Fold this sequence. Notes:
The protein is an alpha+beta fold. It folds into two domains: about 1-80, no CATH class; about 85-135. It is built from three helices and five strands; from the N terminus they run βββββααα. The chain has helices spanning about 85-100, 110-115, 120-130, and strands at about 1-10, 30-40, 45-50, 60-65, 70-80. A five-stranded antiparallel beta sheet has the order 4-3-2-1-5, with helices on one face.
Amino acid sequence: xxxxxxxxxxxxxxxxxxxxxxxxxxxxxxxxxxxxxxxxxxxxxxxxxxxxxxxxxxxxxxxxxxxxxxxxxxxxxxxxxxxxxxxxxxxxxxxxxxxxxxxxxxxxxxxxxxxxxxxxxxxxxxxxxxxxxxxxxxx
Length: 139
């Protein structure tokens, strides 16, 4: 059985509390990276979940993203509900290639690093060392 995982980069509103001078207001929207299972979609929204129970049709970590906010989407192949390490490294390399300087790592990267018993910097270093032609193991 093959499952599909997607990485969606999208723009989101952000807010600030407190008083700010007009010239000091940062007019940039947040740039968000979400990685998960696409549960459903229509012409207006994409519903993506970070977790799926393999025995049921239940999902967790659900995010509904307006299609008009999506900047890019990329499929990452998953076989038999197990993401090959190379798929993980591919997702991390895509993130590294597209991130802005001093940008915080996306939320999806933390559980991956934890499952591999690596600090975030270690996972990023591993992804940089492994090229796209590297043979990945399964995690």
